TrEMBL record:
Organism: Sphingomonas paeninsulae
Domain of life: Bacteria
Lineage, highest ranks first: Bacteria, Pseudomonadati, Pseudomonadota, Alphaproteobacteria, Sphingomonadales
Keywords: ATP-binding, Nucleotide-binding
Family classification: Belongs to the ABC transporter superfamily. Ycf16 family.
Protein name, UniProt field: Fe-S cluster assembly ATPase SufC
Residues in ABC transporter domain copies: 2-247
Length: 247
């Protein structure tokens, strides 16, 4: 589904990714762990097409397409979803209207007919209910006045409505208490643990992996993958830290 080969990327004049190679197959969940400044968030931003992140070498293929040649909205329409460490607030924009416009824009990009208001609300109610959110929250401005846990739940509702093929989740566990962590983990499994989908889960800590068990754990350090293992590697990192692993 996703094939990254020898990826180099700069932020400004500073090289961040330095020859990263990684492949995800349908049905797989991969966790990316690593110290601060290793390039984890940069990887997510490069894949999603965020401005200011310049690819200087390498290639990325997604579902048989050259991902790097696509504009950000084209990547989204192709099935890529980026979850933010700190979901942004958008004052004055209704959450439910934002989600309907987002979904229909992607459907248009794929040559599909837009959903009517009634059709969309049926999907939105189901996804919100699964995440323990009521429709009143979806009628509020996007993330405005939401707690950290509510923002992450709202992002899971967005992901459920968009229904992407590949979810790149950047520190989704950040700011979550124990109960919210379980709810968000269950949401990731419900939406994305399917044979035709894949997840790239970027995290500092093992705790989310108690709920979303990865098929592979990768250590990203110095802009490249330095080690790959199974779910037990996350426990080793939690116990010994990155310095001991490097030693």
């Amino acid at each position: 589904m996703l094939k990254i080969e020898n990826l180099h990327a700069n932020v400004g004049d500073k090289p961040i990714l330095k020859g990263l190679t990684l492949s995800l197959n349908p049905g797989e969940i991969h966790a990316i762990m690593g110290p601060n400044g290793a390039g984890k968030s940069t990887l997510g931003y490069v894949l999603s097409g965020r401005p200011g992140y310049e690819v200087t070498e390498g290639s990325v293929t997604f579902q048989g397409q050259d991902l790097l040649s696509l504009a950000p909205h084209e990547r989204a329409a192709a099935g890529l979803f980026l979850g933010f460490q700190y979901p942004v607030e958008i004052p004055g924009v209704s959450n439910v209207q934002f989600l309907r416009e987002s979904l229909n824009a992607q459907r248009k990009g794929r040559g599909e007919a837009p959903l009517s208001g009634a059709e969309f609300l049926k999907i939105a109610r189901a996804q919100a209910g699964d995440m323990g959110m009521d429709m009143d929250m979806l009628k509020r401005p996007v993330n405005v006045g939401f707690s950290g846990g509510e923002k992450k739940r709202n992002e899971m509702v967005q992901m459920g409505i968009i229904d992407p093929a590949l979810a790149i989740l950047d520190e989704t566990d950040s700011g979550l208490d124990i109960d919210a962590l379980r709810v968000v983990g269950d949401g990731i499994n419900r939406i994305m643990r399917k044979p035709d989908k894949a997840v790239l889960l970027i995290t500092h800590y093992q705790r989310l992996l108690d709920y979303v068990r990865p098929d592979f754990v990768h250590v990203l350090d110095g802009g490249r993958i330095t080690r790959t293992g199974g779910a037990e590697l996350a426990l080793e990192l939690e116990r010994d830290g990155y310095k001991e692993l490097a030693a």
